[in-house]
Amino acid sequence: MEQSISVDAAEPPTDHRSRAQGGARIALVLALSALGLWVLHPFLPALAWAVILAIALWPLYAKAERRWPPGGHNILLPSLFTLAVALVFLAPLVVLGVQAAREAHDAMAWVKSVEQSGIPAPEFLSHLPYGAARAGAWWNENLSHPSAGSEILHKLDNSTTIGLTKSLGAQVVRRVVLFGFTLLTLFFLFRDGRAVIRQSLTASGRLFGPRGERVARQMVASVHGTVDGLVLVGLGEGVILGIVYYFAGVPHPVLLGALTAVAAMIPFGAPLVFGIAALILLAGGAVIPAAVVVAAGFVVTFVADHFVRPVLIGGTTRLPFLWVLLGILGGVETFGLLGLFLGPAVMAALVLLWREFTDGDVSQDASRGPRGP
After folding, report:
1. Whole-number Å distance between alpha carbons of 232 and 119
2. Which residues of 103-172 form beta strands (DSSP E)?
3. Which of 8, 81, 286, 332 is the most exposed place for a label (fewest CB within 10 A)?
4. Beta-carbon contacts of residue 226 (< 8 Å; ≥ 6 apart)
5. What's CA 355's distance to the chain center, in Å?
6. What's the average model confidence in pLDDT over 20-30?
7. What residue ranges are annotated as transmembrane (predicted)?
8. What's this model's pTM, rounded to 2 decimal places?
9. Are the C-beta atoms of residues 340 and 332 closer than 8 Å to each other?
């Protein structure tokens, strides 16, 4: 009897033991999570892009899945959608590569002419309203003779060119590998999407309660709104300005229109491209078409950035345009192109939590009734 009492007294209480086990479990989960992030950190951008693409395309995929129910292995439909995404990204690159190969001959001929006779003065210098004679004289004195062209070309020595080529090649290989992992992850997200959604909602409910599910749905809605407001509007700007380039006589209007569409996905990025198009026209002496391109570009971007995008993004997430803009710019500054979608999603979640916090305080204060002075 005394021995059993002494044994029981030596054992720690049950609540202390469960508390220690709970702390150990939390420490183990945090350690394993940190280790997993450290192992996966080279591929985190690929995983994030795959999640964003899956969220953006899931409504379309769900419609296709209802139209053509998957079989037992569920491979065909995810493969087709993944292949379509790959073609959307790869087709413009192939067109750009073919166009660059066609222009390589002209570029080499231009380099040879620059080395032999210098850089001739562009025609628009003679059309300048002020200082045309002085600008033309400076150009002829510094750039139009053969020695100037040779000096410019000799500054690009072989060591610098080789170093830039190696760096560019390494970056291209890294991007190709990340793109391959993005497509692979996207395939599995399409195939197992419903299970992933169910598990994510269960996990958020257990960890954060109903508020976690609301935050998750708000972030998903933000991704949809950002895709509509950035990608679709950017494509629209590229199409409209591509037509303007064509009628204004800009060389390669399709290529410049595609570049405008990509740049327009970033706020205030499109003026860089249509500004280059205007400079190309100015170099050829087409002053009025250049002015038309600049005016049309500013009108299109002003309407898109101040009227269309706030409605598409803010209407979906109930997010003020200021926070949409700050989320996009801050996200791009922090995460690169990935921040175009992560920034507004984070802002949408924070604004939702703030609204729930302040609305809860207001309702709680109202339920208490009036207070005395």
Report:
1. 41
2. none
3. 8
4. 313, 328, 340, 341, 344, 345
5. 27
6. 81
7. 22-40, 46-63, 75-98, 172-190, 227-248, 254-274, 279-301, 321-354
8. 0.71
9. yes
